[in-house]
Each structure stands twice: as C-alpha cells, then as structure tokens.
Design a protein that fits this description.
Layout: H1 2-25, E1 31-35, E2 41-46, E3 60-63, E4 73-76, E5 87-93, E6 103-106, E7 110-113, E8 118-122, E9 127-133
Antiparallel strand pairs: 1-2, 2-5, 3-4, 5-9, 6-7, 8-9
C-alpha cells in the first residue's frame, strides 16, 4: 500500500512541476495582446517593447472601415515606437478570394503600400489572414 501512495505522490509532483514550467516558460510567455473592438484584429506586443511609462491598456485597435470593400483599423496612440517589433494580425471573411493589398495611412507619410506582410488565403473557409511586424503606430 505504501508504494501505491509513493507512486501517486511522485506522479502528482511531476505534474505540478510540468504545469509550472509550462506556465513560466510557455509559448505565450512575455507576449501581451491587444484585441480590436470587433475581435478580428490583434497586436501581439513583446513584454518589454512598450515605451517607458506606457501600459498595454494605452494601446487600442479600432475598426474604422466605411464599407465591405475595404477593411481599416486605427492603432493608437499615434507615434508610439516600440523597442521590439509587435505583430499585427487580422483575419476576415473573403467570399471572393481576392488577394488584399495592405497599405498604411499616416499624416506624416500619406498612403503607403505595406511591404513584408504575410497574406494567407484559406479557400475552404473563405478567409484571409494578414500578418505584419511593425515598429511604430
């Protein structure tokens, strides 16, 4: 009987240590997320990438699309410069399976094509995902 309890005790300790290690060293460790108001876009920010004095609560993503022909998000606050690249990601329905052309609009630079964006079409689900690393919003 004593061996049975020892085995359960050891198995419990292994599970406890494994759970702690996953929580502490897990894949999302050190990443903070901001989700857009419509839930379709997110910004994954490395833990120490925010400027000094800024909190994750200061960052916002708002869908400002006017119609279904263009999807637009406003990231705030303007002029925020990160010390490490956050990743912007959006997934949206694409019933016509059109390859989108991502661009950026700013007061300083006007309209610019976004280079380096990863665009994935999922034809089975009629969805498109756009992923882009950014340094400034």
């Amino acid at each position: 009987m004593k061996k049975h309890y020892t085995i359960i005790g050891i198995a419990g300790a292994v599970l406890l240590v494994t759970g702690f290690m996953y929580f502490y060293f897990g894949p999302s460790r050190g990443i903070q997320k901001v989700i857009s108001n419509d839930g379709l876009a997110e910004l994954e920010i490395p833990k120490n990438a925010l400027p000094e004095g800024m909190s994750i609560k200061d960052i916002s993503i708002t869908n400002v699309s006017v119609d279904d022909t263009m999807i637009a998000y406003e990231l705030k606050p303007d002029g925020t410069i990160f010390s490490e690249e956050p990743t912007f990601k959006t997934t949206f329905k694409n019933k016509d399976n059109i390859i989108p052309i991502p661009f950026s609009i700013s007061e300083e630079n006007g309209i610019e094509l976004v280079s380096g964006a990863e665009i994935t079409l999922n034809l089975a689900k009629n969805e498109t995902t756009v992923v882009k690393k950014i340094m400034e919003i």
